[in-house]
What we know:
By secondary structure, the chain is an alpha/beta fold. The chain has helices at 28-42, 60-65, 70-94, 116-124, 142-152, 186-192, 199-207, 222-228, and strands spanning 8-13, 47-52, 99-103, 112-113, 128-132, 157-162, 167-168, 180-181, 183-185, 212-216, 234-237. Helices cover 37% and strands 19% of the residues. The strands form two sheets. It has a nine-stranded mixed sheet with strand order 4-3-5-2-1-6-10-11-9, sandwiched between helices. Strands 7-8 form a two-stranded antiparallel ribbon. β1, α1 (28-42) and β2 form a beta-alpha-beta unit.
Amino acid sequence: MSSPRYQRILLKLSGEALMGDGKFGIAPATLDAIADQVHAAWSLGVEIGIVVGGGNIFRGVAGSARGMDRASADYMGMLATVMNALALQDALEKRGAKTRVQSAIEMQELAEPYIRRRAVRHLEKGRVVIFGAGTGNPYFTTDTAAALRAMEINAQVIMKATKVDGVYTADPKKDPTATRYDQLTYIDVLQKGLQVMDSTAISLCMDHKLPILVFDMTDPTNIVRAIRGDRIGTIVSAKPD
Length: 241
C-alpha cells in the first residue's frame, strides 16, 4: 500500500450518517462500519481529528422552527453531538484505537474540555481526537466547527463523509440528469449555492486555503483511499489541480 498523502486530517461526520437506514438514533451496524474505516486509517499512522454532528438525535434549527428559543435549541443539539462522540469513541476503542473526546462545553465526567494545544498533543501521540459540542456557541453549525477545528489543529484537509460520491449539480436522487463535479473552487461553491458545507465554513476554508474533500463513506475502503490520495469524490480548493 502506498504511503498516505495526508499526515493529519479532520474528518467531518454528520449525525445522520450514524442512523443508517433508520429515522432516529444510532444504528449499531453503521457505527461499527464507520469505526472500522476510521480504525483502518488510524492504523496507517495518520493523525485523525473528528467532528461529528447531532442531527440523528436533535437539530437546533429544527427545534427553532417549531418555536423553541434558537440558542436553547442549539445547545440541545450540541449535547447530541457529545452523545455521538462518546458512541464513536467506544466503537473505536473496542477496535484498539487510542482516543480522546474533547467537548467545547465543559462536562468533566464525560469528556476533556477543548484545549487546542492538548488536542494537538493527543494527535502527536497517535490518539484519535473526537470533538464534541460544535464550537460551544449557538448559531454555528458543526460544519463551521469542523472548519475551525481543522485550522486550529493544522489539518491538511477536511474530509467530509457523506452518502453520495461527491458534489453534484443537483440532488442525484431527485434529478437523474445531475452530474458530479470532480473539482470545485470555494467561489464556485458559494456562487452556485452548492450544499457542500455552510457558507461560514466555506469562507473560513477559503480564507486559509484549506481543501475540502467530499466523498462517499458507504464504500468501506474510501477513507483509506482518500488518505492515500486516490482520486475519489469532489475536491474543493482555491484553484483546480
